Amino acid sequence: MLNLVLFGGPGSGKGTQSAKLIDKYGLYHISTGEVLRDHIARDTELGRMANSYISKGNLIPDDLMIQLLDDVLEKEAKDKNGVIFDGFPRTLPQAKALEELLKKRGTKLHAVVGLEVDDEELMKRMLSRGAATGRADDNPETIRKRLDVYHNQTMPLREHYTSTGHYLPIDGRGSID
Ligand code: AMP
């Protein structure tokens, strides 16, 4: 079993690097952002609710995200070599919940890979992704809010995972390889 968290700001390359790790290690990939965007595309009740947060650059409430992750783990991630968590946890309560969810399944978190990229570069990447894909929250105003939320609510996890010995910083600039 290998359970990894890919950690980093919006646009830091979590999705891109996840794809490479999945190929190499045969892991199951859970991107909470993708799960939510899928609900929005299918216009489900959860999708409509999530969209009201995502479109403003805010985080979806913890209890909802934790329940969603529990469901995905139950349905999709059984009998896999491990999981890459991409975009989860984003808050300290989510990190605590992840620990419990893994423990309840007889496993644990092995490492948190932190893709470290400065805000200016993140902004540039998200603007070009928005232009290329039409992703709705990749616009200047929402990006600024997402970066604020990242610094205020998610960055404290870096310290948390450093103190638990899980955090592995990676320079997230330069070529993808
Ligand atoms: P991402 O694709 O990971 O950048 O996520 C896009 C958006 O989905 C975020 O800006 C949040 O609004 C929401 N989201 C994704 N994952 C989480 C999470 N773990 N907790 C709260 N909100 C999330």
Q: Please state the overall shape, judged from the principal axes of the Cα atoms.
A: globular
Oligomer: single chain
Strand order of the largest sheet: 2-3-1-4-5
Beta-strand portion reads 5-15%
Number of helices: 8
Report the CATH superfamily: P-loop containing nucleotide triphosphate hydrolases
Mean pLDDT: 96
How many domain modules? 1
Listing every helix as H and every strand as E from the N terminus to the C terminus, the arrangement reads EHEHHHEHEHHHE
Assign the CATH class: Alpha Beta
Radius of gyration: 15 Å
Q: How far apart are the termini? A: 24 Å
Label the CATH architecture: 3-Layer(aba) Sandwich
CATH topology assignment: Rossmann fold
Structural features, described:
It is a single chain. The protein has a single domain, classed as P-loop containing nucleotide triphosphate hydrolases (Rossmann fold), CATH 3.40.50. The protein has a five-stranded parallel beta sheet with strand order 2-3-1-4-5, with helices on both faces. The chain has eight helices and five strands. It is globular. The chain has 177 residues and is of the alpha/beta class. Helix 6 packs across helix 7 (140-154). The structure holds adenosine monophosphate. Adenosine monophosphate binds next to helix 2 and helix 3.
Key attributes of the depicted protein:
177 residues; alpha/beta; Rossmann fold; five-stranded parallel β-sheet; 8 helices; binds adenosine monophosphate
Summarize the structure.
This protein is α/β, with parallel strands linked by helices.
